[in-house]
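Throughout our pipeline, every protein is held as a single compact record rather than as scattered files. Such a record has a labelled line for the sequence and another for the backbone structure tokens. The remainder of this section carries one protein's record, kept here as part of the documentation:
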Amino acid sequence: MKTNVISLDNQTVGEIELADAVFGLPVRTDILFRAVNWQLAKRQSGTHKTKGISEISGTTKKPFNQKGGGRARQGSLRSAQFRGGATIFGPVVRSHAHDLPKKVRKLALKTALSSKAADGKLIVLDQASAASPKTKDLVAKLSKLGLSSVLFIDGTIEANFALASRNIPHVDVLPQVGANVYDILRRDTLVITKDAVAALEARLK
């Protein structure tokens, strides 16, 4: 699959052949769903917690006699039925992460790249570099390209470009080693440099 290579000034500077094995796969939403779910599950902190009966501050004395009072038997004021008592089967500190086979993760990344290419939302850039770290200059170039929600993937991130882009809303910059399904799908347009294309194809073929 051939596509044009453009510069940040929106000039066509050449052509590139994209590998069908990476950018031309059929879009499978089930694979994308599994990958995004796996990523977001790993991201959860899992620090939510409620107290069990052994953690509640309070007396260990039996509230009242077992028999003769006409009330239901009770062994502790820290039980769940009393105000300030324990929570039964409440959340505990744990990891929400689960396994996803390496082959599925690889397929999901290729599918995410292919979905952007199929939607016409994939742009190949000559190089992602900035002469100065000024945000205003990069915003002007992005508006010339008609980009508002965009993910840039480069082989290695140039310092000036990273500084210029980090304060722009809905603009993310990642090295190709950090390319992932969730970040690709959450932005409207995917912009990949020629270096990143070569590195991703070598990694995913």
Summary: The chain has a mean pLDDT of 94. The beta strands are 2-6, 12-17, 122-125, 150-154, 171-175, 189-193. The radius of gyration is 27 Å.
